[in-house]
Amino acid sequence: MDYEQSKYHIVEQANLYIANHRHYTWFQHSGSVYELDTLKLLDLKGITTFAPLQEFPHLKSLEFGTTNSTLTIPDLVGLDQASHLERLAFVSKTKIKRNIEVIARLSNLQSLGLYNVQQALPEDLLSALTSLQSVSLSKHNYNSSASLPACLEEISITVDGLATLPSIPPATGVKKVSLHGNRCEIDTLHSFAIFPNVEEIKINAPKKLTDLSYVSQLHRLKVLDINFAPVSDLTALDQHPAIEELRLRGSWVEQLEPITLCPALKILYLEKSKLHSIANIRTQCPQLQQLWIWGTKVKDLSPLTDMSTLQNLDVTMLKPKSWDFLATLTGLEVLDLCKTSFADPHLLVELPNLKKVRLANSEVDVASDEYQRLENIILARGGVLR
After folding, report:
1. Domain span at residue 20?
2. How sure is the predictor about 31, in pLDDT bands with cuts at 50, 70 and 90?
3. C-beta separation of 81 from 103 below 8 A
């Protein structure tokens, strides 16, 4: 290991980083290269130890490589000398030949990006990081750890064909879980038992997920984003105390039954689903603020009448029996009526909070006096009518 040689090449990379980012308005740096708080190492040639990073006392964020590239790191020795580091990410598809375990000695590390690391981890690496709040993992390392640190709040896993989560002791601090990758094979949420206090679950196109029953055990769950899941049964959501946001685009849900009450629900996305009825939505979702049901088979929108909590409504492509309910939605701020049978702007002119309306390809006569009146009202509020 050659400290001075490595220092020379690290400083060279630091100067290159400054030169490449100086033209960005957000980039603020006018002092010594050693005062950088962020550094990207793109070329590791000549760097045999990362110990010189100890001379960068303000360094908080370090990235290796760049997107759409590969990187081999012969040795991570000395990286632990960057003792103030809070964020570490491997942006290139990376292979680390020696001393990957030094990452575990970065005691101030809060965010760790391993989604491009093409190898398994020592089983105790993550659990040793006592300040770690966020980690992203790949197919090569998502199942490496014997346990997760108690401080961890957010985990992201990118694995094609993922069928279940690892069998590890419960990570009670984790609040947010994101599953990326293609061809998700998960058909039930039971493996989320390892995250008993999770508040947000996002799964990319889980096209085999049909069983939501375990949601009833996740009492702190606030956000469930499972667009394109072929879910039809919403029983597990009935009386759920915490769920605030539900994303079920392209699902098989036909109606909101058997939900009797979802007391905290504020955002509901059911666009392009098999939904055909919202019969009791006002009593089922008394706090609902945002509803997207465009591209569904709903013919009767009258259950929305007097739903004053509603702020954002998208009913694109729908042709209900009546649009009279719109005049009662006094809390409405955003409304999308594109490609609908809507033809009467008069229903909207008394809505006190309306600021953004889309009417493209509806049946509204844009030359009518009522349309002009609506346009004047919206524009006076600084809004948009299209």
Report:
1. 1-152
2. confident
3. no
